[in-house]
Write a structure and sequence with these properties.
The protein has 2 domains: about 425 residues, Chloramphenicol Acetyltransferase; about 425 residues, Chloramphenicol Acetyltransferase, CATH 3.30.559. The longest helix has 22 residues. About 40% of the residues are buried. Helix content is about 35%, strand content about 20%. Strand 4, helix 2 and strand 5 form a beta-alpha-beta unit. About 5% of the residues have low confidence. By secondary structure, the protein is α+β, with helices and mostly antiparallel strands.
Length: about 900
């Protein structure tokens, strides 16, 4: 390997360099008085098959600090524009190491014309530090150079390893679990390498192994823009750029592009020792070379890189890379001959952050060279360099061409998608809505329905398909006293006041009232609580047939579908059902009863639901322990320049995820003949939380991603079983809670719609792609943006929202992830044994407390048995992810 420093003087004095090397490197001692770099005066010695460091007796420094003229290499032809490239190739390939001599040297080349050194003020000179990789790694290389330049105190600021080891801090039970699952995480990345070719077939026919290379400069600001835009690390960007460039290069020369190709990507280990070892981590992982969408390729690569940067993976990789050193040299050589290294190799090196001076000589540029027989990008000071033997790069022109493709790849990743927001139209409807709100307040004395809630009322609220939600509590007593429930509702909800003395939940005594196209909350004059806390027998719904094992499911469907809301009445009620046989309630000790809280979604969201119910159950102080939103907003703390940049790039991040939805079908074709009667089938399956946590730790993903992957994998299997065509991608709506939920009844959510790759047979790849989308929606800058976009629809009058809903249906899949209270609930002295969620949504949906429930109309799930089958497929999907 080599590092070339370009000095802004015609010549560097050899004697001065030798003096610096002697004082700052060879004689440098550590805190214990030992030589810090003894290997610089040692050669390799083989003994019984293993290598040892042997001090050189007659070490002469003048043999290792030499002028270029003394190397016996061809003198440069400065009329050749590629002269500097040839010098690099010749110093790496044509000058071999001597036996019984240290494996490093410094070559000084004087009087390099300014035409070859664009950053210099005049003629310059080269300082070439050349060494074998057995001596040190990239971080050690700069450590030695900083020592040589008297900048050792600046090393920590120059090339600090960004990786972190799990062993750096105090050991905990969670860390121990991470260490145990680390080998399985690593195996999942490495297994696809079995199908990757070990070598790219030669493109050009030549056996003389001439090394050609080129360098291109990428502005750091562009790389940072890509990093912020796509929320990925620098290594992922470089791997994506070079793999995209290689793909274009192979296609241009009519080569077969393999599906996946292995890339070796070393990463620095933390706590690098102050000596000359190779102390790195990282590893080999496959890149999807056939993937035409460079955004998808970048995301998949980012998933691999994030795994290699995992605290538990970093030390494991380092340990695995040390294992071959246990074998004698002939075994290692035999393996290298039988199994070549991956076709691509990436070295990401960052140079010093401040300008270097050698005495008073200014260093204007730094170039890194590696004698590697493959394409490999390496980064230093925003430079991307590539090198390859002439069977892959026939000339330096080909190297330039490859880097030009890399540049195109970077520009595509950087290019901003122009989002045309019809601001004048939005402004017009904003002014219109505000005007109507003021008229409603002064003429009718009413309060307008909030923006986000308005969207959820954009339907026939009083019809069978209204967006009704229910929460059912299973009590361990044969009956619940209606009078006691009414008293609880009156005291804890209807009469509850906030700190300002106002009613906390006034909407519970209000009905919807349209006025000039917008909805208002209108207080009901003759509100009767007994009309909203009722016994099941008074609902006019069919009496349950307890001999039917699906009786509870039918009750849930009937409560949601066949009991419509009354006009001029509040959109909530509590239904009490007594004497439910124990055979239907496995957690009960005897016959039980049901407490069904039913409401329209315009009133409140899932977080608000549990907030109200905890208030009802006198557990309001436990709400934060029960369902705390895990998302964060970028506006939560002090605004900084970096946050402002994130806010500006958030719309483009969101657009990249949402744009593929254009190709997604708006609806899955009916599977069964539902006869238009829209019967709601449903089922629930229990997933042990321990299993979900195991998947989360194993794959380093969030719970929402796991649930989306499980339900999408189950839907895929269900469609295949019923001989349905699988769409390539399918949209899923995935609401996520907003932070700082107000203490009132409102819909305060974020999230959004994104596509899931339904045809992806590998459930690990499916989970990773879903996780990347979910992580974007959880981004601090995306969370408030998603909420803001949801509120924009509320600017329009109801007829506009209704027209849009009729023309464009919601996505085929809908996920609501709700987690219940953390401790057992009691209604007075009555224990609540179970909680069940229900939603009148004609699509599949998963929801909480380690239960996965699914509901769909009978044109998709012909019966409750079909719903059971679908959840059985989801169970299989979960077990495969867990295994």
């Amino acid at each position: 390997m080599s590092v070339t420093l370009i000095a802004d003087v015609p010549a560097i004095q050899k004697e001065r360099v030798m003096q610096k090397v002697q004082e700052n490197l060879l004689e440098k001692r550590d805190s214990e008085g030992n030589l810090q770099f003894p290997e610089l005066k040692c050669s390799l010695r083989i003994f019984l098959g293993y290598l040892f460091w042997k001090p050189v007796r007659n070490f002469k420094l003048e043999d290792h600090v030499i002028n270029y003229e003394d190397t016996k290499l061809p003198l440069p032809d400065w009329s050749d524009p590629d002269a500097l490239r040839k010098i690099t190739s010749e110093t790496l390939r044509c000058r071999c190491w001597r036996k019984d001599a240290p494996l490093w040297e410094i070559i000084l080349l004087s009087n390099v014309p300014k035409s070859h050194l664009p950053k210099n003020s005049g003629h310059g000179s080269l300082f070439i530090w050349r060494f074998h990789h057995v001596l040190m790694d990239g971080y050690g290389r700069f450590k030695v150079l900083m020592q040589l330049f008297g900048k050792f105190d600046k090393i920590s600021n120059s090339a600090v390893p960004s990786a972190v080891s799990i062993y750096d801090e105090k050991m905990t039970w969670s860390k121990l679990q991470s260490i145990c699952v680390a080998p399985f995480k690593l195996a999942e990345i490495w297994l696809p390498l079995i199908g990757c070719p070990l070598k790219i077939p030669p493109i050009f026919s030549n056996g003389n192994k001439i090394l050609f290379h080129a360098t291109i400069k990428f502005p750091m600001v562009d790389l940072k823009a890509i990093r912020m835009k796509h929320n990925v690390d620098l290594t992922s960007i470089l791997v994506a750029i070079i793999s995209g460039g290689v793909r274009r290069f192979l296609l241009k020369y009519n080569q077969d592009v393999p599906n996946k190709l292995g890339i070796m990507c070393p990463m620095p280990m933390p706590n690098h020792p102050d000596k000359l070892p190779n102390y790195v981590s990282g590893g080999v992982f496959p890149i999807p070379l056939l993937e035409t969408n460079n955004i998808n390729r970048l995301r998949e690569i980012s998933g691999g890189c994030s795994t290699f940067r995992d605290k538990s993976i970093v030390p494991l990789n380092h340990f695995i890379s040390k294992l071959p050193g246990l074998f004698p040299q002939f075994v290692i050589l035999t393996c290298r001959n039988l199994f070549s290294l991956p076709p691509l190799f990436l070295t990401n090196l960052v140079g010093p952050i401040e300008k270097l001076l050698f005495d008073e000589i200014s260093i204007t540029d730094i170039k890194v060279g590696v004698n590697m027989p493959k394409d490999g990008p390496r980064e230093g000071q925003a430079n991307l360099a590539v090198s390859g033997f002439n069977e892959y790069l026939e000339s330096n022109q080909h190297a330039d061409e490859l880097l030009e493709y890399c540049k195109e790849e970077m520009k595509e990743l950087e290019s901003l998608i122009v989002i045309l927001v019809p601001i004048p139209v939005l402004c017009f409807f904003y002014i219109l809505r505000q005007t109507v709100a003021l008229l409603g307040k002064f003429i009718l004395g009413l309060k307008i329905v909030p923006l986000f809630d308005t969207c959820l009322a954009g339907e026939n609220v009083y019809g069978k398909e209204a967006l009704t939600t229910s929460v059912t509590f299973v009590a361990d007593v044969p009956s619940i006293q209606r009078e006691r429930v009414m008293q609880k509702v009156q005291e804890n909800l209807l009469e509850k006041r906030d700190r300002g003395g106002n009613l906390q939940f006034p909407e519970l005594k209000c009905a919807l009232r349209p006025f000039l196209g917008y909805l208002f909350w209108k207080p009901v004059k003759k509100f009767k609580l007994e009309d909203h806390v009722i016994n099941y027998e008074d609902t006019e719904l069919p009496i349950p047939d307890w001999s039917d094992p699906n009786a509870l499911r039918k009750i849930a469907s009937q409560v949601l579908r066949y009991r419509g809301w009354r006009k001029d009445a509040p959109l909530w009620e509590i239904i009490l059902l007594s004497n439910v046989p124990k055979s239907h309630l496995p957690k009960n000790s005897r016959n039980g009863s049901l407490f069904v809280w039913r409401y329209h979604h315009v009133l409140l969201d899932g977080y608000g639901t549990f907030k109200v119910l905890m208030q009802l159950f006198d557990k309001y102080d436990k709400v934060k322990d029960s369902v705390v939103p895990s998302t964060l907003s970028i506006f939560d703390e002090k605004l900084t320049w970096r946050k402002l940049q994130s806010i500006c790039t958030a719309p483009f991040k969101l657009a990249e995820i949402c744009l593929p939805l254009v190709l997604c079908p708006l609806k899955i074709p009916p599977i069964f003949n539902g006869n238009g009667n829209k019967i709601l089938s449903s089922a629930t399956i229990k997933f042990p939380l321990a299993d979900l946590k195991a998947i989360r730790m194993k794959h380093n993903v969030d719970l929402t991603s796991i649930l989306v992957a499980i339900i999408s994998g189950g839907v895929r299997r269900f469609l295949l079983k019923n001989n349905q065509n699988l769409p390539n991608k399918l949209g899923i709506m995935c609401p996520m809670p907003m932070p700082n939920h107000p203490d009132k009844l409102t819909n305060h959510v974020s999230g959004g719609i994104f596509p899931i790759p339904l045809r992806e047979p590998n459930n690990i790849s499916l989970l990773r792609e879903i996780s990347l989308a979910c992580s974007t929606f959880r981004d601090k800058s995306i969370v408030p943006l998603g909420h803001f976009i949801g509120k924009l629809a509320g600017l329009f009058p109801q007829f506009v929202i209704l027209t849009h809903r009729n023309l464009f249906s919601l996505p085929p899949l809908f996920l609501a992830n709700l987690v219940g209270p953390v401790e057992k609930l009691w209604l007075d002295d009555i224990p609540i044994m179970d909680i069940k969620m229900g939603a009148n949504i004609p699509k599949d949906g998963a929801r909480g407390e380690a239960n996965l429930s699914v509901s769909a109309f009978n044109e998709y799930l012909e019966s409750n048995q079909q719903a059971d089958d679908l959840l059985e497929y989801c169970w299989e999907e979960m077990k495969e992810l867990e295994s």
